[in-house]
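Sample 1 of the test manifest.
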Amino acid sequence: LKMSHQGLPPAHPSHPSHVLQIETLMMEMQSPDTGIKTQAQAVMVTSIPHAVTGNDIMQWILQRLQVTAEEALHLGDLFVKYGYIYPLQEPKNLTLKADGSLYRFQTPYFWPVQSWAADDTDYAIYLAKKNIKRKGILEEYEKEHYNMLNQKINYKWDFVIMQAKEQYKAGKERKKEDRYALDCQERAYWLVNRTPPGMLDVLEYGIDRVTDPNENKVNQVRQPWIMYYQQAILKTRVKSSVSLGGIVKYSEQFLSNDPILSGCLPSNPWISDDPDFWDLNAKLVEVPTRMRVERWAFNFSELIRDPKGRQNFQLFLKKEFSGENLGFWEACEDLKYGDQSKVKEKAEEIYKLFLAPGARRWINIDGKTMGITVKGLEHPHRYVLDAAQTHIYMLMKKDSYGRYLKSPIYKEMLAKAVVPQEGVKKRQVKLAVIVGFVFLVVARVEKLIHGSFPGRREHWCPEHGKTPAHETLAARAETDPRFGVIHRICSAAWTKPLTPGVREGDRQQAAPCE
Amino acid sequence: MDQTFLAIVFGPCDKCSKNKPLRPVSVKSEQRSYCSLCVEMMATEGLHENETLASLKSEAESLKGKLEEERAKLHDVELHQVAERVEALGQFVMKTRRTLKGHGNKVLCMDWCKDKRRIVSSSQDGKVIVWDSFTTNKEHAVTMPCTWVMACAYAPSGCAIACGGLDNKCSVYPLTFEKNENMAAKKKSVAMHTNYLSACSFTNSDMQILTASGDGTCALWDVESGQLLQSFHGHGADVLCLDLAPSETGNTFVSGGCDKKAMVWDMRSGQCVQSFETHDSDINSVRYYPSGDAFASGSDDATCRLYDLRADREVAIYSKESIIFGASSVDFSLSGRLLFAGYNDYTINVWDVLKGSRVSILFGHENRVSTLRVSPDGTAFCSGSWDHTLRVSAGRLI
């Protein structure tokens, strides 16, 4: 089956690297030694050669890549969607079925190669040929394409029709089974390259990525690369064992705080639909949770990052008369990340408040740092206070932080901290409500049938209020807390009359217990 | 985790003598301090005497080799070896808990609000939607004047969002709850690039935005004035992603691009402080490990990788023969033990970061997963896809 190529259409960008890997697998799948055994299979009355079943494909992928059936099916399905394998029985449906459905390997000529797009002329020929084969068989979207192409490449139309007729004639001379297979092949190709509306367009790759990484420009070689490498070589590094040890340690330390790995109390809102967890951990909640307060002791960063932790730390600092340190640090953050137009103004305010001799909240930094800072303030910019900020940060971290963790302020916070109960409560209430409702309904039905509530027919004692059912429930409630709630609700149901009048009537009927 | 501070030196430039913030630079093997303008000029200079393009390239290559040698000297153990003592993870059950339907076309990007339940998402048709994903209610919607809104971000205060794409800009929209709110009216155009916007993020406040672009640069902007505060040059091709370091002491961010490089930048000086080139294809996503000492990347080469910043090297590759399609988006669980990665084969793979093995594979989306973020408190993750939907998934180890 020849395709005409009127010169190469514009190239697609070649960035998807999955193509090479799929092609390798496809070749393996068809290899006589390691591949799937193909055989002639009957499709309706025709015997199509070199066919495989969907199940064969899935099993082969499963074995070859050592994956689960679900994964193998998903991957195989993608191979069909991308046009590397095509279906023989439901040609319109590019999916893989893990059963006896029949498939064939697409000829490499038709593989979705990224370096040239499927040609409009070829598509026109295909549609014209389809039309010749059986008039009116074209789908709506195909008719639209056909009409559009007729206009777009009208100057070639004689050529298109001639080619279509030639191909149709050549096709008729083939054996029936070859013709059928080639039809399916071609159809699959065009389903991939001219996707019908509503179907997944697998060849869509997003937008074109612009810059060519292969351009050789002097400025891209000298800077940053030569300059960068020169600096990078001199950089201090840490031994792998040390830094990797740190990474592992961090993960272990935070394991219990990771809701996906350890759950969270009272419950994960997304799973239980209960936002309590968020309320209990609100930014400046009155009483934080224990996990949260314990986290402040992991490292200084955890403390200062948490607004509640920072608030508590500030209390401690005030007691030590070093509250201005945190204040200064916060002011520096505001300078760095705030409005650019206010930089000069803020820097001056900070100087007056924290750095000037005799300043109201004077911070204690060494002479050298003070010198750099004051000089820098002659030409203020966002990072002008960096040196001073670092100094104060380190002071808080290495000095105040340790004492804070041992202080009564922190210890009190820890002691007050709340440990939420696991959110069985909501489930319990839901269950109780449902069961209680059922009991209510049953009771009402019984009343309708027998003229009174169950249990009241028997010994409803005005003093003890007990009934057999009530008793069993009470006994159960002793061992199982769930029944406690049900018991309470059912008790309410049984002692609560439909209308005041009914109660009086019942009472008259009931005999007092002995 | 300590980071060394580069105190910004402010003084007379060694070249032009003007008083400006200075950067250390190597000129003919000698250390100098140039202002950023002079650095730029030096960078765009033509060849010097006795230099050819080839000789420059070979000098760069030999320096690169030397750097790799230096890096290898301190490499004494592999990550999975250190992780041997760590308990293996058990079975995983993650389920979709919320499906957000409302976009009319491919979802390209999403970001969480600090309140742990609201999200902003953007799509190919130009729509940007703010959702309360807990209730699945749409709270705000705006239609951008361009298609392919590839970047969106929630402001730290929760009072604004930023977005951009094929318009080459990053715009900030304040969020109000006024009746008859017309979000488009209060729009502020902040960033201007010369090609598409691929990523954006607020820094520690609503007043500054960091952007990445198809024009090969990243930039830091002042929201109020739209002023460019710092630009970051160095990628040789489109920059596709960025992430800010979580630390209070560092002021760095990492970016990934079509030049297969992941680069770490000093926000104050605009300098690249570290660079890694081990991927075989475009890097679509970068994300810091929660401690800030490492970062992960996801690439079109179908692998995700972990880079240790203190050891200055790649320390893990997360790949499998059955994973053939590119990874589009990655994020860590709260403890950093798990790495969630969305792929172009519509699946999400969950990796054990320390042991290097895949813990779970999640199906559900019907087209590429284009964006994935874990919620701020780690209770769930949200994935956005070309199938027009966003899904919030949660679960746990059993």
